[in-house]
Write a structure and sequence with these properties.
Length: 347
């Protein structure tokens, strides 16, 4: 289930705001349209945002009338700037844009830039799918037999090139016959768990049970959760993890109940420039997401609202970080820095 497809002169993506009621494919022919789809969360999830942004740059190159390389470079810089301004937290977005910039800088002429940018964006999407499968393979080895696994938000195929990160671990463990049931946090306020994760798991026939976010502690206390696995939007060099709002509360509950708390993410989610989780920019979204559910107002008109889209789980609560290159354990400053040295990613 690939959420975004390259179609020669445009991209098509599943409109994730219409799920699970409808599977609508949205056509975007320009980088502006891609940026709007990211901003409005028609496409969302850290790796999928990165892929969309890369395709957005490729579309900017194809749609440009520039005949000189310097003119095209200027237009691509502009396109990158407004794509980068869509959502601040997921580092994959900026990583993908840097990769596209490095690609156009290697080319001398307009035709070469266009060809290389399309190839690079497609490669990035294909690599992401492979990374998710590798994350799944590594993560499945941590899953006990007959596991009851809790996940928060949607870190599934819809959030990546395909297969998913946290759901990649669950998918691979399910393929190995290890999963008894997945607890799906509904994930207020945008309901990625209820709308997207529940839908993905049901499509694959993986047994799942939807709960409100505030029920997780109850089931942990009753001994009905064996492990938690979530995705990430940004991981600092010391292992602090930004992920969907509510993740931190789940991690604290895991510590209280002695339940392993795993984070599954590709390398591109690690931001080597940041050490402290408090320095990760946290997106603040519209209060309407909190005061209304599916367009229906549930709070009094005019009530002041806070709506941070992400929170930060400190490294000390993270049992392991599962990447395509293997499983990293604390102390993260050492394990992640050893790993980052071998990545060769742009900084
Ligand atoms: O606001 P969203 O839906 O883009 O947030 C998504 C998450 O928090 C995911 O857990 C994260 O991006 C990892 S997706 C593989």
């Amino acid at each position: 289930m690939r959420p975004i497809l390259w179609c020669d002169d445009h991209v098509e993506m599943i409109d994730q705001t219409a799920l699970p009621g409808r599977v609508d494919w949205l056509r975007s022919g320009t980088s502006r349209e891609v940026a709007e789809a990211i901003r409005s969360m028609k496409i969302r999830g850290a790796p999928a945002i990165g892929i969309a942004a890369a395709y957005g740059v490729a579309l900017a190159a194809l749609g440009s009338a520039a005949t000189e390389a310097t003119d095209l470079r200027r237009e691509l810089e502009e396109a990158s700037e407004f794509l980068a301004a869509t959502r601040p937290t997921a580092v994959n977005l900026f990583w993908a844009l840097q990769r596209m910039k490095a690609t156009w800088e290697r080319q001398a002429d307009v035709a070469g830039m266009r060809r290389a940018l399309v190839e690079e964006a497609r490669a990035l999407a294909a690599e992401d799918e492979q990374m998710c499968r590798d994350i799944g393979r590594h993560g499945a080895s941590l899953v006990p037999q007959d596991a009851r696994i809790l996940t928060h938000c949607n870190a599934g195929a819809l959030a990546t090139g395909d297969y998913g990160t946290a759901l990649g671990v669950i998918r691979a463990a399910h393929e190995a016959g290890k999963v008894r049931q997945v607890w799906v946090d509904e994930t207020r306020p945008f309901l990625q768990g209820a709308r997207l994760t529940a839908w993905e798991l049901m499509q694959d026939g993986i047994p799942c049970r939807l709960i409100c976010d505030n029920m997780a502690g109850h089931f942990m206390q009753r001994g009905q959760v064996d492990m938690v696995v979530v995705g990430a939007d940004r991981i600092t060099a010391h292992g602090d993890v930004a992920n969907k709002i509510g993740t931190y509360s789940v991690a604290v509950l895991c510590r209280e109940h002695g339940i392993p708390f795993y984070v599954a993410a590709p390398y591109s989610t690690i931001d080597p420039k940041l050490v402290e989780g408090r320095d990760i920019p946290i997106e603040e979204r519209s209060g309407d997401e909190v005061t209304a559910i599916a367009g229906h107002r549930i709070a009094p008109e005019g009530v002041p609202v806070a709506n941070p889209a992400f929170d930060v789980t400190p490294a000390r609560l993270v049992s392991a970080i599962i990447t395509e290159r293997g499983v990293f354990r604390p102390p993260y400053p050492e394990s992640l820095s050893r790993a980052l040295k071998t990545v060769g990613r742009p900084d």
